[in-house]
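Exam revision sheet. Question 4 asks you to relate a sequence to its structure. Input first:
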Amino acid sequence: MSNGVLLIWADRVGSWFGTTPKEGPDALPVRVHGREYGRTRAAPAGIKAFDQNLAWAIAGLLIWGLVMVYSASIALNDGPRSTGFSQVQYLVRHTAALSVGFIAALLVFQISMDTWEKAAPWVFIVSIVLLIVVLLPFMGKSINGARRWISLGVFNFQPSELAKFGTLLYAANYMVRKMDVKEKFFAAVTPMGVAIAIVGSLLLAEPDMGAFLVIAVIAMGILFLGGVNARMFILIALVFLIAFGLIIGLSEWRRERIFAYLDPWSAKYALGKGYQLSHSLIAFGRGEIFGVGLGGSVEKLHWLPEAHTDFLLAVIGEEFGLVGVVTLIGVFMWMTRRIMFIGRQAIAMDRVFAGLVAQGVGIWIGFQAFINMGVNLGALPTKGLTLPLMSYGGSAILLNLIALAVVLRVDYENRLLMHGGRV
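Answer key, structure tokens:
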């Protein structure tokens, strides 16, 4: 293959990631003393494609999560639910999910925010259709009493994860379309409220109250950041609080979970609904300041249920101690703050949809991490929410990486426009 062909392909691959700006129609030959030496470009060649620090933070959490999933699941093959599995079964599956998610993220990064704005309602509709499909007895797969997965043969897909992504796209698109009526409560809020109510009723039928809570907060956050009147926002928050209170109050097993959270050590709950929380707290207690060392956790040896998914933080706390937990919290706080900054930057450039989408992703990742950490530490009632980017779960990893790829795309477009380029 000639050097010329190699250079053409290098430029083409570079343009996919924004490292080689495309020449615009205004690119002209440069002549010195009548001789052509090169061509000017529409944007400087030295622009960084996207936020490198954010990309490294995401990569660091993914790698740390992969190591911890292996550590937390290494003994699961001895249990009755995983009989016949090898010790690396969950490691292999999680690695496969990361690989698929990485490829999907690379593809999503190529899609402009204008395209996402046009596709937003359709992504939301597809997510609702899949939430209906998962409830069908011959389509949905039931695990631990909840029908949340659609079996695709090689892996189980969880539509609620797509619903989070679809909701934030739809909410951002909705606020852009309703800018002229955002001060009018019923005109601005009612259509969005109906959409969230439909999604919520489908999620509660699975049941999956944790996903509904995250989706409600994403929608509320985007409405607030989109400029909905503060008094209206407070009213919306009160409505949601009353709704969640009624959902808990009218469900006996949800009430029992709240009581178990308040006193997990009592004789009534220690071996029942408080069992998971009590063993999570034991894990943190064993970790003390610096932890017992990677792989040294005892609670993951069939004492702590779902140690590789919802309670991965407890294993991190046991093996890395307070230092590891504080470090992890710091990374999530920095990452959420950085994502919100990218969104504010886009809005300042009059790219409202792109900015609200980025901020919606920040709310999603930050709030879900907050809930998961609070549950693990006993500060919040037990909910089945994974730790973003780290816990075992193919659907969550896939949609987390897709959402963050969209954020990096927003940042890329911001940088390109600030340096005189075109999206």
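Marking note for examiners. The CA atoms of residues 371 and 380 lie 7 Å apart.
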